[in-house]
Design brief:
The protein has 228 residues and is an alpha/beta fold. It has nine helices and eight strands. α7 links the parallel β6 and β7 (177-182).
């Protein structure tokens, strides 16, 4: 499935108006809401965001990314957990980093109770670890009953891309893996990994904020099937 990433008001507006949307939208709550706003102002902004996302025609993945894994606005764990709880009823999927899973145990249980599918993710922004480390992280994600293990790694060199491909191809752990690269070979990695059974392909709805992220229009140009 193709996932359009919404990380700004402009992208949210575009997602509402788009004639042929992707299968899912990922709502980056860490980008869309700032922790410095409190009280009545924050409540109004959250209410406005909820009204706006109700206009989206496709299901949502919600996430509030950890600052050490690319998260915006330096949200604390408590702030991120509160946001995810607030929007959980709107979600088809929730994405929580593996490093956050121990603290977010009650949230993962609430998601399961509400039949919201769980993505456990890791983001290696500086390198691509050996496949053995990625397998260990996938096994840990399975312990948290993840429906999908998502992994993004730095792919600036052919060797880094090869390590990510080796991990994705091995299927050592019995869990669906959505793997993708960032960096100079990021776009190539995302196109190649579709053939390895990656269940989710993340695309930018405008100019990609992540180096190597493919745009929705580029994906269409490569002939990928999208919903009508």
């Amino acid at each position: 499935m193709v996932v359009g990433v919404i990380s700004s008001p402009a992208e949210l507006d575009f997602a509402i108006r788009i004639a042929k949307p992707p299968h899912l939208f990922e709502l980056r709550l860490d980008h869309l809401l700032r922790p410095t706003l409190e009280g009545a102002i924050a409540a109004r902004l959250i209410e406005r965001l909820e009204i706006t996302i109700s206009k989206l025609r496709e299901p949502l993945i919600i996430t509030a990314r950890h600052p050490m894994e690319g998260g915006a606005n330096r949200l604390s764990a408590q702030q991120r957990r509160n946001l995810l709880y607030r929007f959980l009823h709107r979600a088809r999927y929730i994405d929580i980093e593996l490093r956050s899973a121990p603290f977010f145990g009650s949230l993962l249980r609430a998601a399961r109770k509400q039949k919201v599918r769980r993505i456990i993710s890791v983001h290696h922004l500086m390198a691509t670890p050996p496949p053995s480390r990625l397998w260990a992280q996938a096994r840990a994600a399975r312990m948290y009953e993840a429906d999908i293990f998502k992994v993004a790694t730095r792919t600036d060199t052919p060797a880094q891309l090869a390590r990510l491909m080796d991990f994705a191809a091995a299927k050592v752990v019995n869990i669906p893996v959505s793997a993708m690269g960032i960096g100079k070979l990021g776009m190539a990695s995302r196109l190649l990994l579709v053939s390895f059974g990656s269940p989710l392909v993340y695309v930018s709805l405008g100019h990609g904020k992540v180096e190597g992220q493919i745009t929705l229009e580029q994906l269409r140009a490569y002939g990928f099937a999208l919903p009508l």
